[in-house]
Amino acid sequence: MDQQSNQLELYARPAAGVRSAIRHIYSFWSGIEQPVERVLLPNFQASIIFNFGRPHTMQVGSNQNSSFTLNRVAIIGPIKQAIRFQSEAGADMLSVNFSFDGFYRFFNLPVQELNGHVIHPDDLLVKKCFNLLWEQLMEAADHQDRVAIVGKFADPYLKTGDNSLNHVADLITLCQKQLHLNPVKLMANEQRISERTAQLRFQKYVGFSPKEFARFVRFQRVLNELQTTSRLQPDWYDFVERNGYYDQSHLIHDFAHFVGQSPTHLLHELGNERLYCAPYALP
């Protein structure tokens, strides 16, 4: 807890039994009177967001018309653009963030079924149970109790990934480390299927194309560096060269697409104490 700002912001891993499907749980609470802008950065994963305070209007990307009202609970994904909203006194939210294959293993549905839309998670299940889960989380004493409740709730729903799903997950991990690799060609060669079939399978399980993912990973690398760099002016040409951008305008274009800001503007926001920018998950 930050006593000066009266804010609480926490990250936690769930129990070991569900950790392969739920990457991390992020929560925050605000006790200050003045509204604070918050930004949930894109992570290309599906998230279930619980709201225990007043309804919030959440804006996706830079389009003013692309917004939704969060009441109690909603699922959105894959999150491909930053989500911005104002938190007021008493704001209390928790975000359950799936791994790349976690949504499919939990709901037994392709992520592309969401298509970026915001829906109530009970709409995806025969047994309507998320309102009950919301009530249990609302009554929980603290953040750690909520993390334990989420883990206990999720455990019986999780299914073991099939061979195709596991293969896609392994390829994502590999391609995050080696950007030059083409996951579609690798999958097609290893499973002896056409590249078109491999591309459709990739899209089915994780909700985005390999080309989209490669673009995001490149952007993610730059953003991770910005979050750990000093507040001195970075060498943007060095960022361009080391991360595979054609030129500086290419870098600026990607930042505008994912977060609606230029790299310089976002760097300034990351150092702004009045803005809370939820970074990427625990490594």
From TrEMBL:
Pfam families, A to Z: DUF6597 (PF20240), HTH_18 (PF12833)
InterPro entries: AraC_XylS_family_regulators, DUF6597, HTH_AraC
Domain HTH araC/xylS-type: 184-269
GO molecular function, one term: DNA-binding transcription factor activity
Record flagged with keyword DNA-binding: yes
Keyword Transcription: yes
Protein name, as recorded: AraC family transcriptional regulator
Lineage of producing organism: Bacteria, Pseudomonadati, Bacteroidota, Cytophagia, Cytophagales
